[in-house]
Specification:
By secondary structure, the chain is an alpha/beta fold. It has helices at residues 3-7, 11-21, 36-45, 57-64, 75-84, 119-128, 148-158, 198-208, 221-252, 256-263, 287-297, 303-329, 357-367, 395-401, 416-422, 432-435; strands spanning 26-30, 49-53, 87-90, 101-104, 136-140, 168-172, 191-195, 215-218, 338-342, 371-375, 381-384, 387-390, 404-407, 426-428, 443-445. The protein contains 16 helices and 15 strands. An 8-stranded mixed β-sheet has the order 3-2-1-4-5-6-7-8, with helices on both faces. Strands 10-9-13-14-15 form a 5-stranded parallel β-sheet, sandwiched between helices. Strands 11-12 form a two-stranded antiparallel sheet. Helix 12 packs across helix 13 (357-367). The longest helix is centred in the middle third of the chain and has 32 residues, at 221-252. The termini are far apart. The structure holds ligand SAJ. Ligand SAJ is lined by residues 175-178, 231-232, 235, 239, 273-274, 276, 279-281, 283-284, 346-347.
Length: 446
C-alpha cells in the first residue's frame, strides 16, 4: 500500500493498521475447531494478543492447560503461547469488547432439508454485536454462499450506528485448512481476503499479514466467498466426472484405473482424480450446494453442481450393486453373505466419518440382508440411521471369514497383500490393492 493510499484510509483504519503493525492489537477467534485453533496459534505466534472463544468448556480448559486437541496443532506450541501470555482461551464472549479484530470460524453445515444452515454464523454475530466499537474489524472464515457477509453481517455491524468501511471493518477470508496435511498449513497457504470496502480489505490484510506467508486481496467479499466455492466445486464436479468415467468404463469393459493412469501421463491440461464409493467430508459434498442453493434463489439452476451431486450420491448404491453382481457370479446371494468393509473414514488416514460413503454402503448392504462387519484402524465404532458397529479386532481373521472383503477407504496402514491372501473375494472400490502392488484374480475393482 502506498503512503498516499494509506493516508486516504479512514482514521479508524489507519489506527488499526498501526496497532496490528506494532503488535499491540488484540484478536478474538470465535470457534476453536480445525480452522479456529490453527488460526489462533498462527496469529499468536506472530505476536498478536489472541483470545480464543468457544462455547465448549472442554476445549477452553484443554487450551488453558496448554493442551491441543487438534492433530495439526502441537500441544507444545499451545503451552508455550499460553505461558507467554499471547494466547488464552475463554467461554466468556464479553472478552470480545476488548478486541481490535475478530475472526468467525464456526461451522456452516446443511440442514436436513438440504438448505444452508447459517445459524452458527448468526449466533456468532449476535455474540459480537454488544462488543461492536469504533476500530473493530470482523473477518468471516466459514464457507458460505456469495452475499452472506454483505447481506447477513453488514446490517448487524451497522446496527450499532457505526459505518462499515469508516468506523468498523468487515471482510470474508475463506479457510483453506486441510486437516492432517503437513505440506500446506495455515501459515503458508495463500490467504484470500475480500472486504466490503477497500479499507475493509486493507485492515483485514493488516490483521492476517503478520501470520500469513501470502495474502491475496480481492475487491469484494463476494469474490472471496465465490473463490472458496469454485475451489471446492471444482473438486466435487471432477470427482463426479471420474465416477461417471468408472460407470462408462465398466460398460465398455475397460479398466478405468489404467485409463486414469495413462491420462495422468499428460504433463499439462489434465488433473488426476480417482473414482470411489462416493463423496465424504464436510467440505466437498456440502460447499457446492451452498452455491446452487443461492443461485436457485436467483432463478438460476446450477446444473453442473446438481448433476455432480446426483452422480456422487449414487455411488454407494452402485458399489453395492457391483458387490451383488460379484457374489452372484460365485453363486452367492448378497442376502446372508458375510461381508467385511475395509475402511470407514471419509478419506484415507483420517478418523473423520462426516458424510462418509462407507456409512451408506454399509447401510445399503444391511438393507439387502448381508451380515456386515468393518475394520478401520482410525474408527473404533460407528453408528448410522439406527444401527451401530465396532471395528473388528483382527483384520486378517475377519477377512478370511468373509465371503467378500469390500475396500471402501484406502488407508495406507493396511497390509493389503495379507488381506488378499486370506480373502475369498475382494471388491476394491479404491484400487488400493493394485496401488499396493497386489495383483490377484480374486480382486475386482470399481
Ligand atoms: N475423493 C474421490 N476422488 C478423488 C478425490 C477425493 O473420491 O479424486 C473423495 C474422497 O475419498 C472424500 C471426498 O472425495 O470422500 C473429499 O475428498 P478431498 O480430497 O476433497 O478431501 P477433503 O474433503 O478433506 O477436502 C479438503 C478441502 N480443503 C478445504 O476445503 C480447505 C479441499 O479443498 C482440498 O483440496 C482437499 O482437502 C485436499 O486436497 O486434500
Amino acid at each position: 500500500m502506498t503512503k498516499m493510499e494509506r493516508a486516504n484510509l479512514p482514521p479508524a483504519a489507519q489506527e488499526l493498521l498501526q496497532r496490528f503493525e506494532n503488535r499491540q492489537a488484540r484478536v478474538g477467534i470465535l470457534g476453536l475447531g480445525y480452522v479456529g485453533l490453527p488460526l489462533a496459534v498462527a496469529l499468536a505466534k506472530a505476536g498478536l494478543q489472541v483470545t480464543g472463544i468457544d462455547l465448549d468448556p472442554a476445549k477452553v480448559d484443554s487450551l488453558s492447560r496448554g493442551e491441543s486437541y487438534i492433530e495439526d496443532v502441537p500441544s507444545a506450541d499451545v503451552a508455550a503461547l499460553v505461558r507467554a501470555g499471547t494466547l488464552r482461551a475463554t467461554t466468556d464472549f464479553s472478552a470480545l469488547a476488548a478486541m481490535d479484530g475478530v475472526s468467525i470460524c464456526v461451522p456452516t453445515p446443511l440442514r436436513k432439508t438440504g438448505d444452508p444452515d447459517l445459524s452458527f454464523i448468526l449466533s456468532a454475530m449476535q455474540a459480537i454485536k454488544p462488543s461492536i466499537h469504533r476500530g473493530l474489524v470482523v473477518i468471516l472464515e466459514s464457507t458460505t454462499y456469495p452475499g452472506t457477509t454483505r447481506e447477513m453481517l453488514l446490517p448487524e455491524m451497522e446496527s450499532s450506528g457505526l459505518k462499515v468501511g469508516v468506523d468498523v471493518f468487515l471482510a470474508f477470508s475463506p479457510e483453506r485448512v486441510d486437516p492432517g496435511r503437513k505440506d500446506w498449513t495455515t501459515e503458508n497457504t495463500p490467504k484470500v481476503i475480500g472486504g466490503i470496502t477497500a479499507a475493509c480489505t486493507a485492515v483485514a490484510q493488516a490483521m492476517y499479514g503478520p501470520a500469513m506467508k501470502a495474502i491475496v486481496p480481492v475487491t469484494t467479499a463476494e469474490v472471496a466467498e465465490m473463490t472458496k466455492l469454485l475451489e471446492n466445486t471444482f473438486r466435487a464436479v471432477n470427482i463426479a466426472l471420474v465416477n461417471e468415467m468408472a460407470l462408462m468404463c465398466e460398460r465398455l469393459d475397460v479398466d478405468v484405473w489404467e485409463v486414469i493412469r495413462a491420462a495422468s501421463t499428460k504433463p499439462f491440461g489434465f488433473m488426476r482424480f480417482t473414482p470411489g464409493p462416493g463423496l465424504g467430508g464436510h467440505c466437498i459434498p456440502i460447499d457446492p450446494l451452498y452455491l446452487s442453493w443461492k443461485l436457485k434463489s436467483l432463478k438460476y439452476n446450477a446444473r453442473m453442481i446438481d448433476l455432480a451431486s446426483e452422480i456422487n450420491t449414487s455411488m454407494p448404491r452402485y458399489v453395492v450393486q457391483r458387490i451383488q453382481d460379484l457374489l452372484n457370479q460365485h453363486g452367492k446371494p448378497l442376502k446372508g453373505a458375510r461381508l467385511l468393509v475395509l475402511g470407514a473414514a471419509y478419506k484415507p488416514d483420517v478418523s473423520d466419518l462426516r458424510e462418509s460413503p462407507a456409512l451408506d454402503v454399509i447401510g445399503l448392504l444391511r438393507e439387502k440382508g448381508a451380515a456386515v462387519e468393518y475394520f478401520d484402524p482410525y474408527v473404533a465404532s460407528l453408528e448410522h440411521e439406527g444401527w451401530e458397529l465396532t471395528s473388528v479386532p483382527d483384520l486378517l481373521s475377519a477377512a478370511g471369514a468373509a465371503d467378500c472383503v469390500v475396500v471402501v477407504t484406502d488407508h495406507t496402514a493396511i497390509d493389503y497383500a495379507a488381506v488378499a491372501q486370506r480373502a475369498k473375494l475382494v471388491f476394491d472400490s479404491r484400487n488400493a490393492l493394485a496401488a499396493a502392488g497386489v495383483h490377484d484374480p480374486k480382486v475386482t475393482t470399481l
